[in-house]
Amino acid sequence: MNNIANWLTMHIKDNVSDLTDLQLIKIKFGIECLLSEASKTIIYILFFSFLSLTTEFLVAFLFFTAIRVFAGGYHEETYWRCFITSLLFLGSCIFLGLSLNITIYGKIAIIIFSAIIAYIFSPVDHPNKPIISEQRRKKLKYLSIGVIIMLGLIGINLSSVYSNIAILAILVESISLILGYMKKKYVYH
């Protein structure tokens, strides 16, 4: 990913003359993130398709990532550690969602718990891209809570198995906030 991002960044630098070094660093970081996430997503789709769980994966992935965009969460240091951790997070949503029978009251409790966790911990930013503005932090916190509640309501209304997977994806992302907060506080500082 790094080599491809370097090559693309140098190609951009050669074709756009007025970019600063900081802008090039930001471009390279963005390309690395895009390539990393796209490649992982393609591999996950292939993996879960092989297991005949494509729709289940898409439900878990959409609910998990829709919250993560605003709330942030746990991050790994390397591509492969991130790949494995994300696979475990998404896989647990899918396989637990297929095997558990979560009642409506359990689902509501998970949504409330997740919203509280988001209120306490979100946003958990990436160490390479910290959120400096307190105003932006507050906005992301409330967006996270709103997205959790909205997705929770949607998730409750899905058919049984998909509902379980969606609600568990919300729960796993909220747990990711706790883990990310703890790692950021105790490992990076």
Give the proportion of residues in helices.
over 70%
Would you tell me the structural class of the helices and strands? mainly alpha
The global form is globular
Please indicate the count of domains. Answer: 2
What count of helical segments does DSSP give?
A: 7
- Report the biggest beta sheet as strand number plus sense, adding barrel if it closes: none
Mean of pLDDT: 92
Q: Tell how many strands the DSSP assignment holds.
A: 0
Q: Ends: how far apart?
A: 27 Å
- What's the Cα radius of gyration? 18 Å
Question: What's this entry about, in short?
Answer:
With 189 residues, the protein is mainly alpha-helical.
Question: How does the SSE layout of this entry go?
Answer:
Layout: H1 2-15, H2 21-50, H3 54-71, H4 79-99, H5 104-121, H6 134-156, H7 160-186
3D architecture notes:
By secondary structure, the protein is mainly alpha-helical. It has two domains: 50 residues, no CATH class; 135 residues, no CATH class. 80% of the residues lie in helices and 0% in strands. It has seven helices and no strands. Helix 1 packs across helix 2, helix 3 crosses helix 4 and helix 6 packs antiparallel against helix 7. The radius of gyration is 18 Å and the shape is globular. The mean pLDDT is 92.
Keywords:
189 residues, mainly alpha, 2 domains, 0% strand
